[in-house]
Amino acid sequence: MRYVQLATLLHKADYIAPDGGSRISEAERAYRLAIRHAPNPAMEAGVTGNLGALLLGVAGRVEDGLRFIERCIERFAEARIVANPLYAGALFNRGKALDMLGRAGEAQDAYAEAARAARGISAAQGSYAKAFAAQKQLSKEQVAELEDATRYLGLVAGEVQEEESPEDEDDSAAGRRRRRWRTSSGDDAGDGGVGVGGGGGGGGAARAKPLSELQPAWEWLDGIGAEDRSWLHFALYHGYEAQGDASRAWHHLELANRLQRSRIQYSPDGADALLHTLRELFLLPASAGLGSAAHASELTSARATLKALLAGDAGCDDATPVFVVGMPRSGSTLVEQILASHSQVFGAGEDTAFQPLVPDLIAALNSADRKAAIAAVGMRYVAAMRAHMPRDSPNPSPARIVDKMLRNAWNVGHIAIALPRASVVHVVRHPLDVVLSCYVQPFEGRGTPWAWDLKEIAHEVALTHEVMKLWDEVLPGRVLHVRYEELVADQAAVSRRLLAHCGLPWEEGVLDFHATQRTVQTASLGQVRKRIYGSAVARWRQYAAELRPAAEILQPLIDVYEAGLRSAGLLGGHADHDEL
């Protein structure tokens, strides 16, 4: 039992506070020992599934993870323990693994099977909800099932009244459709409420079912948490979006995000303060030298030192790292996939190896042997990235390794000091397309606490733009900015520029990025399996009225961005790729 506890603790620690995967190998060893010493088939199956889930988050280990997950499913089936939340969870994780490996059809079947296995099991509420949210297409029967579930939950919570029915909704206007529900944005929800309501009849059913009729089928959902409940509404958003019912789709999207926002405490103040600190550190404003001639002299010396460090005076002399940074859902996974399609490149995904080194880098700046200490930090990063190479990689020593941890946008200055030869690529997209794509994406896990509110997403977009402006001022020409719309319009030209920036020779194979066999561990895993096609540029226009709160915050940035598109001849209805 102690092995299970140790493995679970390490697994959770890696999830909550990732540090580049330092705990993974120890967690794997503990899981393997727990499997060996499992006292019964159920314990063995459950721990085997946990090990599989752990390996899904490790670059190059997804197939290993899938094997353990399938072994878990087999063990449960052999023991005839299928009415079990761990069995349903393993089926869901099987879908995730298949998705990551590009086996989309099999993944959808696995998700559907997971939903069926979880239904009726109170402890499997999360697997049931997430399995529906992960499915790309829902039948009308599935939409009706989810409407019943969400209506039941709304009735139990007092957010929907018995007499409310689908006919009460005027789905021609986003504002009037809200009359049907009591939400936290209205007077009925009360202060601090999260009134979310429920659905109503699978796209136009004539009768709203009463609680007495729904309860026998859905009381197993009693006590469901806000996060799991949100997945049901995300699923209904996708279901109605596919049916072309934008009004109902947006209604459920709002409910899903409101539920997610209700469960977290978040303020952008920390990010605002960080931006201010970075400006002070890397711009060394004149105010820092006020007070005396000595202070002014110190400021001049500090500026000269900083300039030398940013120019590569210290640091690790290794061109291996390529950092892809920016906002989620901007096209970064597409850029990584193009790079990873080159014979000399390995795409490591969203690695967390650099951020934990920042405190050590700051300490190195103040050490006696500054240059050697800074170089050592850079070498540790490169070594960590190379250690993540899959054991069976056809190219165990690639010339470039791509780190797509987007949050490194805030670390570009530190990267320039520790890794002066590293390449940095910033991927950008129309601000409102980014807002919409983040809002519709049910992010799972840490790292995006701002993603559940339109104004907070807009603020994050603006902050990311400001921090990248800072690096352009501090490191002119160091960052390559790639416009998603331009990449979509002229893939070859932008790909050539991208490879040149990373010091790589041209290879035609990068144009066939969709054929590259590699696992993708982000929300864009399905899109990079396809050729560039049209559907996502200016998609925000479909929901222009609903996005107005974000547009009001971002209007100056939107104006600048659209002027750039217009000057490049890109503001119009050309082909595009699905959002990434």
How would you describe this structure to a colleague?
The chain has a five-stranded parallel beta sheet, with helices on both faces. The longest helix has 21 residues, at 454-474. It contains 23 helices and five strands. Helix 6 (104-118) packs antiparallel against helix 7 (125-134), helix 7 packs parallel to helix 11 (226-243) and helix 19 crosses helix 20. It has helices spanning 2-16, 24-36, 41-56, 62-78, 85-100, 104-118, 125-134, 140-156, 174-177, 211-218, 226-243, 246-262, 269-283, 293-310, 332-340, 358-365, 370-387, 412-418, 431-440, 454-474, 484-489, 491-501, 548-567, and strands at residues 321-326, 345-347, 400-403, 423-428, 479-483. Residues 157-208 are annotated as: Disordered. GO terms for molecular function: protein-tyrosine sulfotransferase activity. Its EC number is 2.8.2.20.
What is the count of DSSP helices, taking H or I runs of 4+ residues? 23
| Sheet having the most strands | 5 strands, parallel
Helical/strand content category: mainly alpha
Number of strands: 5
- The residue-averaged pLDDT reads 86
Shape: globular
Give the N-terminus to C-terminus distance in angstroms.
Answer: 42 Å
Low-confidence stretches: 166-193, 200-206, 520-526, 573-580
Helix and strand string, N-terminal first?
HHHHHHHHHHHHHHEHEHHEHEHHEHHH
Q: In angstroms, what is the radius of gyration?
A: 25 Å
What proportion of the residues form beta strands (DSSP E)? under 5%
DSSP helix fraction: 40-55%
How are the strands of the biggest sheet laid out side by side? 2-3-1-4-5
